[in-house]
Amino acid sequence: MKPMTDQHLAVLRRHMVEVIDLHFDLASEEIGKTAVDARLREALLTVPRHLFVPPQLAIVSYQDTPLPIGFDKTVSQPFIGALMLDLLDVRGGHRVLEVGTGLGYQAAVMAALGAEVRSVEIVEEFAQAARIRLAELDHDVDIRVGDGSRGWPEHAPFDRILVTAAAAEVPPALLAQLAPGGRMVVPLGSDDVQRLTLVTKNEAGATGTEEVMPVRFTKLETMG
To answer: Which residues are catalytic?
Structure first.
């Protein structure tokens, strides 16, 4: 069998996005819209997801399923990852905090959307691997190793916060670091029952939450 080329991978990436389109349409009653944001869709077509999984999984990286990346962690199913970013509504120039870098795929997509991205990862090996992958694509994402539930206060406030692991409740430090007018997307609940949740803060500082759909994420790890 011939080796996979960039052209082949582009076809698989396009198919992945078409499946995301289908999921958005099928879940439209739950998520309140029938199509992914056009700018986000273009970024998903552009960012090489196969570079953000272990090399042996590159060939299946565009299937609509979560994939293991080590340390009992996964990269999210493409539809769920796309839904989280669509709910976040990332725009060029937004200051974004990501909690849970993994190997850097979601950060790469947000950087492709023109955001100023900072990401906190508790697993040092992931942080280093993500730095290398993002640098190879010329994405300037600032990554540090630490407890993501504490945010990154030195660079707060953030226009957008993406949490890629489940918490029992919205971490208070993250809510405090969300700017007025900001949005946070986070899976909330127990190990058995989680809901993807949109958290908003208005210009007066009042917060609101909207449950979107059931999801299943690994637990947000904290330090002490």
So the answer is: 76
